[in-house]
Every structure is written in C-alpha cells, then in structure tokens.
Amino acid sequence: MKRTVSCPRLIGRAGELGLLEGALRRMLDGGAPAVVVSGEAGIGKSRLLRHFLWSARDQRVRAWVGHCVPIGDAALPYAPLLEILGEAASELGAERMRELAGPGGSWLAALVPELGWDATPGRTEPQAHQLTSLSYLLDRLAHEPALIVVEDLHWADQGTLDLLGLLVRARRRGRLLIVCTFRDDELRRGHPVRTMLAEWQRCGVERIALRRLDRAATAQQISGILGRTVDPAMADRLYARSGGNPFLAEELVAAEGRTAITEDLKDLLLLRFHELPAAAQQAGHVVALAGTGTGHGLLEQVTTCSTEELSAGLAAAVDRHVLVHDADAYAFRHALVAEAVAQDMLPADRRHLHRCVARALAAGLPGEVTPRSSVRASRLAQIAHHWYAGRDAEQALSAAVEAALAAEEIMAFPQAQLHYQHALALWPDVRRARAESRLDLAGLCEHAAEVAYQMDDIDGALELIGQAFTHLDAHRDKGRAGLLHERRGRYMLGRGDARPAVLAEYQAAVRLTPPEPSLARAQVLAGLAGVLMMDTRYAEAESCAADAVEVAGRLGAAREHEASALGTQGASQAMLGRTDEGLKHLRGARRLAIQIGGFDALWRAHLNLSDVLHYNGLLRESVEVATDGIERLDRLGAADYDSGHFRTQRACLLGNLMQSLFYLGRWDEMRPHIPEPDSRPANNKIHLNLWLTSTSVLVARGEHDWARAALDHCHDLVDCVFTELSALFHVESAELAVWRGDLESARDSAARAAKALERSDHVPLMARAEAIAVRLLADSAQRDPRQVPDITPHQERIAWLGRLPLTRLAAAHLRVADAELARITGDGRTASWTEAVADWADLEAPYYAAYTRWRLTESMLAEGGRRETAARALRTAHGEAVRLGAAPLAGEIEALAKRARFDLAEGDDTAPKSGEPDGPFGLTPREAEVLDLLGEGHTNRQIARKLFISEKTVSIHVSRILAKMNVPNRSKAAATAHRLRQSTSSSEN
Q: Which string of DSSP letters, residue by residue, matches 765-806?
C-alpha cells in the first residue's frame, strides 16, 4: 500500500469527537454552545476539527473557519473574522451579506470594505460598536444552523478576543456553534487568553483538552501512514521518540530508514526541508518569515530564482508535504516547521530577507487593498514588522507611524499602541524619516495618548499628553496647544481629577484656540460648556454653549459638537427656569444625535434631556427617554463591553433612569441595577451617579447597612467629582443618618452639602438639601423642646430660593422645607403640609407623598384637627409605604397611629369597606365625598387637597360619577348633589 504523509483515519480521538458532536446536537436543538479545544503544538487539534467539519457539513450545517495570524509581537487585527466573513460572502453573496448585516452594515463597511459596501464611520465611535455589529452579523448568519471555527487563539488580537467574548456572553438568537483552538503550551502567565478562558468557564463554555496518544494509538497511526501493520519494535521506537505527539510521529516515520535519527527536535523538523531543491528552500525561507498565506506574487518578487525554478521548487515542497497551498497562497504544513526554518536562518540573512519582504509588500500596497480597512491595516502592520525586524530604523519609523494610524482608524487599539511604541522608541535614532513622517513627535505622543485612553490606560494617556506638550511650541501653534488642553481635560475628567484642575484645562483650551470659526473652536467651546454645566454653573454654561452652537452652525460640518452644545444650552436654560426654551433645544439635540448615530452624541443627548425632564417633574417621560437612550447605547455595544468609558456612560444614564423610578415609586424595577454591597464604583465620577441614586432606595427601604457600604465605597471619590454628585453624596449621607437617628452625623453631612452648593445654580438639589437641614432642626426640637434652634438663616435661604426660577421638583422640595420650618415655628403648620401633600400627589411621587401625609397627620393632631380626616391621611400614607416596602417610614406611621389610637387596618377610604352598601346611584363612599365637594363648587385641585389625593385621581372619580349618574357634566352632577342634600335635610327634619 502507498505511504501517506499522515494517517487517513482519526486515531485515538473518538471521545473528543463525540463531545464536539454533542455540542453540535445541542446547537441544532436550539442551544448556543461554545467549545474550546486545547493542546500542545502537533497534538492534532486541526486534524480533529477537520473531521468534525466533515461531520457538520454532512448534516447541512454551514461551517466557516478563520485563523489567527501572528506578526512579530502583534497579531493581524480581526484576521479570523475577516477570513470567516470572506468565506460567508463567497457562499452567500455580497447582497445577502448586506441584508443580514442590518443596521451595522455601514460600520462593517469600514472594517471590511472588501465586501463591496459603501459608508464610512467616524473615528470617534467605540470599538464596542464595531464588535456589536460583527456579533449581530454572525448571529444573523446563523439563521440556519452554522458553525464557526477560530484556530490558534493564542495568536489572536484583542479585538478578536473581545468579539468572541461578546458572542459567548450574549443571548444569541441564531443557531450558532463556536469552536476555538489554542496551544496551551503557548499561554504564558498574564496571556489575555488565560483571562478570557476563566471568564468563559463561568459562562459554561466546554473545554476539550487533547492529550498525547498512548502506545496502541500511536501504533495505529503509524500503520495508517505506512499502509501496513507496523512492526512492534518500530512502533516502540517511534512512540518513545515522539512521546505520543502525532505530528512528531509523522516526522519520525518520514525520516525512518533514510538517515540517522538526530536527538535534536529542530533537526528532525528540518530534515525534509533540507532535502528540497534550492528554489524550494529559498521560497520556504520567505514563507517562514512572511507568515501564513504567502502569495505567489510575493515569492516571485523576493526570491532570486527564475519563474520556472520557483514553480518547480514549490511543486516539490507541496509534493513532499512540507508546504500546503490554497488558491494562490502557500504555508507550511505545520507551524512548528515554519518556526524551525525561520530560526535556522543566519541572523544577517534573516534581516536581509525581512527587508526584501517589506519592500515587496510596500510596492504592492497602493493597488492591492482598499483604504481604511482591516486588510490595509494588516498589510501596513506586516510592512512595519518586517522593516523593524530587518533593523532598518528609517523605514521602520515611517512604517510604524502608518501602521499605527491605520490600526487606530479601525479601532484595533492594541496593535496601534504597539506601533506607536515602536515609533517613539525609534524616533531619536533617525533623521530623514522624522522629516517625512505624517506625524511630528508631539502628534505621535498625542495619537499614542488617545489610544491609551481608549484602552482605559488613563494614567498612560496623561503621561503621553504631557510629552506632547513638551515637544510642541505652544507659542507658535496656539490652536494645537488648545486642543491638547481640551484632550488633557477630557482624560482628567475620565480619571476623576479635582474639578478646578479639569476646568482650568478646558478654559485654557478656549483661551488658546483662535476665535475664528473652526472645528477646533466648536470642539473646545462645546467641551467647556459641558464641564461648566456639570459643575452646575448653568449661566456660564449656557453662554458658552450658545457660542459653540453658533460656531458649529456656521461651519455646517461640526454636527456632533453642535448636538453636544445644543444639549448643554437646553439643559442650562431649563435649570435656570426657562423650561420651555430649554426643552425645545434638548429635544432638538436629541433628534440631531439620533441622525448622527454616534455613541457620545446619543449618550449626552439622552442624559441631558432625561435629567431636565426629571427635575421638571415629567418623571414618566424622563423614564422613557432614559430607557430609549440605554437601548440605543446597548445596540452600539455598551452593555456587552467589559470595561471602558462606554460602560461608564451607560451607568450614568442608568443613574438618571433610577432617580426617576425612585420618585415614581417603581422600586422593584430599580432592584436589578443596584450595585452589590461587595462591588466598588469605577474610579470615574460619572459612575457615582448610579451608586448614589441606588442609595436612595436602599435608605428608604431600610437596607441601611447596604446603603452605608455603598456610601463608604463612594467616599474617596467625592472630593474629585463635580458639584452635583458631591452635594448628592452628602445629601444621601444626611438622609441615611436621619433615618438611623444619628442627628449629629446628619447635621455634619447637611452642612457639607450646603458647602458644596455654595457656588451652584442647581436649585432642585439646593431645595432638597435645605429640606433635610430644616428637618434635622425640627427633629432635634421635637426630641428636646427646651432647645430653641436658630432658624433665621434657613428662613432667609428658603425665601431666597423661593425667589429663584423653580422647577416642579425644586418647588416641591422647597415646600417641604417650608413645612419642616413650620414644625418649629408652629405657624400655618397644617396648611403648609397640606400644600406639600398636594405637590407630591400631583407629581405622582408616592414616597414623598406618604412622608408629607405622615407629617400632615402629626400637624392635624397637634392643632386639634378632625380625627377622621387625619386618620384617612395616615391610612393612605401607610398603604403607600407598605406597598413600596419603605419600612422606616411605615414604622414611624405605625407609631403615630398607635399614639393617636388610629386603626390602620381599616384600609384606604378610597375603596368601599367590606359589607358597606353603595350610596345613591351606586357611588362608593369616596365618590360620594367627591360629589359633595362638587356640589359645594370646588375645583378638582381643591378637592384633591381636601381629600389628600392627586388631581388625576379626582378626575377619575368625577368621570365615574358622571357615568353612574348618567349626567353630561359636573354642573348637572353638582345640582343633583345639592338636591340630594336638601332631600336628606328635609327627611331628617
């Protein structure tokens, strides 16, 4: 029988093949499994996958394979994904691929323009967006059962690992099985695949570890190669030398009987290579250095042999199973041989060949690849690697800069960082290339800083920006210096630096940037306006934002800066009391952001609009806007990205959603988003928004230890953040201390909140802080009536706040502050709390409505009011507190009921009591009360205040009354009520 290079049968892997086929069956049954196959080099991972692919395709499963490709210390960005998409496009066609890509098609066009699509995204979009678009497309490709295989994961770039992680974590709709292979002997400590595997294990990914073959299996393998039963002595000898590694066994069989077997593994691997003709060896050297998929054209340019000699040599290498070919490209049959061939070359010869390969690749670049694509970035990365390995510093610098810029364009940030590091290291040693480079040294540092920032290395980004300033003549190039200040301010903001330092950077940016309309001018003005707004300096923010809107509008090409500034302008106007004008601008900013589709634009527009809607009491609309914003960000990848400011921005918008849900009493919807007690907020001030809004519900529900832990975690970041969050931290701390009965700590926190708000324009937060501060005085006076607190400063502050333009939320909190003051003075106490109840009922904020009804009951009992009315108010408050799970407030209400001898178990007076007959016309007791008040000529608002319910509830009662009485309007109902009262009075007489 004929000898083959390898055994035609799969030996010793029946169990592992069965595990893969089991995963395939789970996928066909509707699951979404993922499997990793590990083992040392030569152990047979690819052989196992090849047999599995045959089995899968026999079951009409579409299967595509991609290979990770190393380039020196880096890896080709998205290499396996491009290969998989290329195979899919060949099979399905570009039009079908465009249809499957859906909304992400335009983004994929920039990543994979070879698919023939149009559109190019801006560079500022997060990598998460591209990853989500890729994930969406791969999921859609699995509308019919599909299998994707990624080989050699140990060589994968970070983008590929991120995408695979997203696919593993996401709940996929399609029937897609993911299988990856990697060399476990390549995973050094700290290797990114190690970290990824630990996470995948938690996600239920199955791992299949291939072990070496035993002696019997090795003997079967050798028999298969030889085509006959192997001699036992030969089997023992080859098993001992190969150790059960199938690839080494193949090489040993090939060497058996032809020459003495060397003890050196490298010599064994090179044995067949050295027997090839000179032309084949020359081509093999190029393939070993150029990597997988070396094209015939490249070999013709680099080798010195004739076309005929090259073709004959390649044919011999393929025939002797040293090289394999696919279409027009060649590769070694196994990576171990390629590594041995490269190491066998003399250093000088290796450097020379690297330079020849770089020159040939560069010559073919303009006509072979599409600009702004992964393929172009990969080719430039190859060129840079070969110049660098070839020790040509001049060429290596230029190539590194071009490769870095191309990688940055497609957001392959780890690759870009490596190339920028090479360029910075080479810079001092070259002259000509520095003059010809597209970037000067300051620009190189600036780009490297942005890449570091995108990779969450903010300290590194700031260090590089500092170097950029060092290498820039700020006096001669003020505009560029201004942009560097803006960038440094943005990085400092992301790190959570002290607000005066951040603000100083943005102010310097505006001061240095020329005043003429330009993209740079629009950018720095919009940035400064945003920072001023975050510091609650709304008047200054509005003015600066208006300037930015004007500049951007005149340019017509700065739409993202225009959207940012328009949102800042609208938010500032609304917070200054010009609500209608502000909401108009905010809604315009949101429409513009949706048109742009950019991550930052969408985040900022929804954040500002939801914030303003919240403070103006439009709580339900605020929830809708925040929810819509989160959903839009999630479609761009925010929820699936493990780290970075994209997740942080999502957390900030989630914080806005949480605060409106809290006021609306929709606390169960908040629960899944509350951070766990043992987690910690990111070192970023925006992330605190979610933590602090979570604290509100924890305090209200009596989970005080959890709330204390959350506040303790936030404590170290408070001094670094802007006014709103700093003040909010102290307000929440005071609220917690009040409910815990620690009035001394509460007073300290209230004083700190007032201090933080001294230069603020944030009236709603000032009103809430004042209500807490006055409540503390009232509680202290209530505990010890001999104390006479100094209330003059608070009276003056409440009066001053009352003269400012107030949002609905600010007015409601200020009303509570005024009512708390009445607890001390006794002046108009019941009237004050009655108005406070009406405000919170109108806002449909049940927790604050319950609190104010509790205080109203206290005041009515203290002033000798009607016990029936007081009891009804207290029962309503208790019902809401119990429904919400507000245990501390419910406890206070129950204590008051016990002191007043009220029976809370009688229930809410708005519903008929058990066994109680309906009144005339079938009216409930509450409807009869409303009808009586209608007969007295009261408006809905007046009825709401008298009955301690909302105007909306009154409106519902009136509608039901008209229907039951069969009268067309409230006037007729009032007349009927008047007649009923007269009839009742006559019968009694």
A: HHHHHHHHHHHHHHHHHHH-TT-----HHHHHHHHHHHTS--
